[in-house]
Design a protein that fits this description.
Blueprint (H helix, E strand, L loop, with lengths): L20 E6 L6 H5 L6 E3 L3 E2 L14 E2 L2 H9 L3 E7 L2 E6 H9 L3 E5 L2 H10 L5 E5 L3 H11 L4 H16 L6 E4 L3 H13 L20
Parallel strand pairs: 1-7, 1-8, 2-7, 3-4, 8-9
Antiparallel strand pairs: 3-6, 5-6
Helix pairs in contact: 5-6
The structure holds adenosine-5'-diphosphate and guanosine-5'-monophosphate (5GP).
């Protein structure tokens, strides 16, 4: 098996402080999640996922994703290295636990930009993490954006649109829904949600024990 430069370990991920904040960000592929998240606020950290998908033009290993083979992904799952994982449009995606723990320990706001099944898993294991769903103005506009991005094949676009319908139907499961029609307005709504996240859920008092992400 080729060696991979992914900083994961199977150790538990206990944090020594809980000053950081995890926020889940979900919405159909092409709705504009990446565009919204990369606009401003370098203080907000994006969790870098592992995926078996092929890199798109311009995507870098360790920056946009950790691009791994399917056997490598399976090892991560077996060794408990992923906080959550799911299959999406024929590829596997998952959130590495250890870098996430490090960022939360440092007090960062960390965004998990993940699809519906992964968001549901996090809802079970970390119910205190606020969950935001980003909606397109319409399915037609969503297709226009995916095609306009120019990075997916027709087959991949069809899979993403089929999946989009399922995800949109689940939008009300999330704490906050934001329609990404006007980018600036959507950004303002996201800022409000991200910087006042604790008002969106009942948050239990901090545990006197070191916080531990679920294994
Ligand atoms: P995602 O990360 O959700 O898959 P992207 O951020 O890659 O989506 O956005 C998909 C495409 O939609 C990009 O070409 C982006 O420039 C465009 N886009 C994002 N937000 C808007 C918006 N509010 N209005 C018009 N186009 C947008
Ligand atoms: P894309 O291939 O367009 O980059 O991503 C496809 C979908 O996978 C998007 O909905 C994205 O949010 C989701 N995704 C990215 N990383 C993860 C992850 O670590 N876990 C899960 N469950 N979904 C992810």
């Amino acid at each position: 098996m080729p060696s991979i430069s992914v900083p994961f370990s199977s150790n538990t991920v206990a944090t020594s402080s809980n000053s950081g904040q995890l926020i889940v960000f979900t919405g159909p592929s092409g709705v504009g999640k990446g565009t919204l998240l990369r606009q401003r606020h370098p203080d907000i950290q994006l969790s870098i996922s592992a995926t078996t998908r092929q890199p798109r033009p311009g995507e870098e290993h360790g920056k946009h994703y950790y691009f791994v083979s399917r056997p490598e992904f399976d090892v991560m799952v077996q060794q408990g290295q992923l906080l959550e994982w799911a299959e999406f449009a024929g590829n596997h995606y998952g959130t590495p636990r250890q870098p996430l723990e490090a960022m939360v320990s440092r007090g960062s706001i960390v965004i998990l930009e993940i699809e519906l099944e992964g968001a549901r898993q996090v809802r079970q294991t970390l119910p205190e993490a606020p969950q935001i769903f980003v909606l397109p103005p319409s399915l037609e506009e969503l297709e226009t954006r995916i095609r306009g991005r120019g990075q997916d094949s027709d087959v991949a676009i069809a899979k993403r649109l089929a999946r989009a319908k399922i995800e949109i139907e689940a939008a009300t499961e999330f704490d906050i829904q934001i329609v990404n029609d006007d980018l600036e307005r959507a950004l303002l709504e996201i800022e409000r949600a991200v910087f006042t996240p604790l008002t969106s859920k009942e948050v239990p008092p901090p545990s006197p024990q070191a916080t531990q992400l679920p294994t």
